[in-house]
């Protein structure tokens, strides 16, 4: 494993030896055991942009793990994993009857936000599944 500097982000940046690394890298699909070189817990769009630029400059592949069911292909030690669970912004436009969601929004949060305006999104029965796959 190579030693890497860390991208400057508002969210946490975790290496394999850091506390919280194991919890951050896991999705619901526990059969996929990913072990990326670094993980960025993106707090917003700026973190995603900075992380992708940093990974490009350091020759790392990039993968994103939204909320929901988790990874299907493991990230390896040549990969920067960006997790989006902290990106939970929701904007509902009741006139246009639309919603803009950040990548970490879960179904239950969107249902609650839409209900405040008498609206209901298409959703399943599991409130912890991510809106973005």
| Helix and strand sequence | EHEHEEEEH
Largest sheet: 4 strands, mixed
Give the helix/strand class.
Answer: alpha/beta
Strand order of the largest sheet: 1-2-4-3
Rg is 16 Å
Q: How far from one another are the termini?
A: 30 Å
**Strands, total number:** 6
3D architecture notes:
With 133 residues, the chain is α/β, with parallel strands linked by helices. Helix content is 20%, strand content 18%. It has helices at 21-25, 45-57, 107-115; strands at residues 13-14, 38-41, 61-65, 79-83, 90-93, 98-101. The strands form 2 sheets. It has a 4-stranded mixed beta sheet with strand order 1-2-4-3. The longest helix has 13 residues, at 45-57.
Indicate the topology.
Layout: E1 13-14, H1 21-25, E2 38-41, H2 45-57, E3 61-65, E4 79-83, E5 90-93, E6 98-101, H3 107-115
Parallel strand pairs: 2-4, 3-4
Antiparallel strand pairs: 1-2, 5-6
Question: What keywords describe this structure?
Answer:
133 residues; four-stranded mixed sheet; 3 helices; elongated; single chain; alpha/beta
């Amino acid at each position: 494993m190579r030693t890497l500097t860390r991208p400057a982000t508002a969210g946490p940046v975790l290496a394999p030896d850091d506390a919280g690394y194991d919890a951050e890298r896991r999705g619901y699909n526990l059969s996929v055991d990913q072990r990326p070189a670094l993980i960025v817990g993106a707090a917003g769009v700026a973190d995603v942009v900075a992380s992708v630029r940093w990974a490009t400059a350091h020759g790392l592949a990039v993968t994103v793990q939204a909320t929901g069911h988790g990874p299907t292909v493991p990230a390896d030690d040549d990969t920067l994993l960006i997790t989006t669970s902290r990106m939970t912004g929701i904007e509902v436009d009741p006139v246009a009857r639309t919603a803009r969601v950040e990548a970490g929004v879960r179904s239950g949060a969107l249902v609650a936000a839409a209900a405040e305006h008498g609206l209901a999104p298409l959703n399943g029965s599991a409130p912890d599944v991510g809106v973005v796959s």
